[in-house]
Amino acid sequence: MNTNHSGMFGELSRRDFLAVSSLSALGALASGGELSAQSEWMVLNPLFETKLGIKFVVGGMVHETAHEGPCRTGKLENLTYQAESQSCEKRFNRFKDEIKNRKLPKEAKILEPVDFRVLVREKNVEFQFEEKYFRQIEKDLDNTDLIVVLWGFASDIALKIAERFDKPVSTIGNDWVVDVPATLRHKGFESYIALDWEDFANLVRLLWVRKAFSQTKLLIVTDRPGQAPYGLAGAIHDFDQLHASYGMQHHCLSNKQLTKEMDSVVGSEAGRQEAAKMARDLMAKAHAVHMTEEHVIHSVYFYLAVKRLMKRHGCNAFTIECREICPLEIAAKYKFTPCMTLSLLKDQGCPAVCQTDINALIPMMALSYLGRRSVYMGNPVFDAKNNILTIFHDVPGLKMKGFSEAPLPYELRNFTLGGWGVTLRYDFTADKGHVVTIARANPGQTKILVTKGEILDGFGVDKISCSLGVRIKHENTLSLFRHMADYGGHLVMAYGDYIDPMQDLSRIAGFDLVVV
User: Which of 175, 199, 218, 417 could hold 194 in an S-S bridge, CB 3.0 to 4.6 Å?
Assistant: First the structure.
């Protein structure tokens, strides 16, 4: 079924994403024991601590004169300027108390609300929107991601705000305030409406995800910038368009720059000590280790070099082209494969994909940010007769069930017959029956294919090479296979059912969602 979903918050044309949140370090229990707070490889991306700044604007109206008419009735003493002003003030103060006590998503940061009163002058049909209220909104503008207009003459106030400030404007309610998004969208402004506070919480989370996209900066190691990777000719490689579509940024480094950084790590006493400490930590927490400490250390050298480069260039996502470091014999020289590093980065909330497959990166980011968890990826194999989808790659995460959850049990196993190249091994059989969401973006970066299934079992834990995988029961594997002709390459897999959130995100983020 190829559908262009409208979602619960309505349609929005493609535009740059906003900006995002940060993660704090966890001292969670690992499968093999308690992880120390110093376990750097478990420290999460500060992106997830970034908040969505929300500015509430409480609307009201005051009249210079007291009179009854078709739009106002009551005792005249209650219709004076002073009486209406007092009524607005009381309602505003009640709202401030309410919003302090209301439980909103942790992604939200509530800025100082504004008591915005529309003034009706004596015998004047031109309502007055006084400048002092706009100045109150402007004070927090740099930290504001969403302006929420509530109550009196909300659509009129919202329109004035939208015309003045380049910010999304929303409202909450299931009554006449539907006029707010209708007015603003008709005039080309970004606007939303939430049915109630629970629905508003969902909107906040989705806008936070969109903000996270715009604060994602990808480090790419390649000697062929601007070209699709070999073996994945359909992979996205137009990063300027990627920025225009999703607000993402990127920075390219050559393989020579990578090896220079690795030499710096290996060549310093501090670097060698850090690598040895981390290797011992990884081995101590593993349920089984099938490698020498020396070979584990070599893969840690690569991890440390990547982390240094990411920090230096302000990046929080990563990819490297395997089909470059292999023929250049960089992997063979330094005795590493990227697998472990990609797994650990994802566990830290830093999306990381194999083989510069950006088509996998986009849905990986969406699912990781939505679910706050590590996302698996791999090659697909389709068993149409039995409706079984297989995904295999040596990049499972220890946080696939959530960044706040205890790490999954793992083994350390060599990728190569020579005994080097650390991979984390997790047996997906332990999760039989778990629902998973599967996705991939198209080469045109305008669509995301999404589907779901249930884990049947895992395989390849005790094998070398790229052999770890999971088998998934799928409703219509043949249909998925047919659709993949427009998407190609790897699939990403996240624990949980994210079809509905992805539908809503597609409307806010500006991509089309294809559900199979």
Answer: 199
Contact between 308 and 330 (Cβ < 8 Å): no
Phi, psi at 353, each rounded to 5°: -120, 150
Pairing of strands 388-392, 376-383: antiparallel
> Could you write out the three-class secondary structure of 72-126?
ECCCHHHCCHHHHHHHHHHHHHHHHHHHHHCCCCCCEEECCCEEEEEEECCCCCC
Q: Where in the sequence of the chain do the CATH 3.40.50 domains occur?
A: 52-208
CATH architecture of 52-208: 3-Layer(aba) Sandwich (3.40)
pLDDT classification of 155: cutoffs 50, 70, 90 = very high
Beta 114-120 vs 52-63: how paired, if at all? parallel
Neighbours of 252 (CB within 10 A): 16
Q: How confident is the model at residue 356 (pLDDT cuts 50, 70, 90)?
A: very high
How far apart (Å, rounded) are the C-alpha atoms in residues 393 and 86?
A: 65
In whole angstroms, how large is the CA radius of gyration of the chain?
Answer: 26
In the predicted structure, residue 206 carries a pLDDT above the cut 60:
yes
Count the residues in the chain. 516
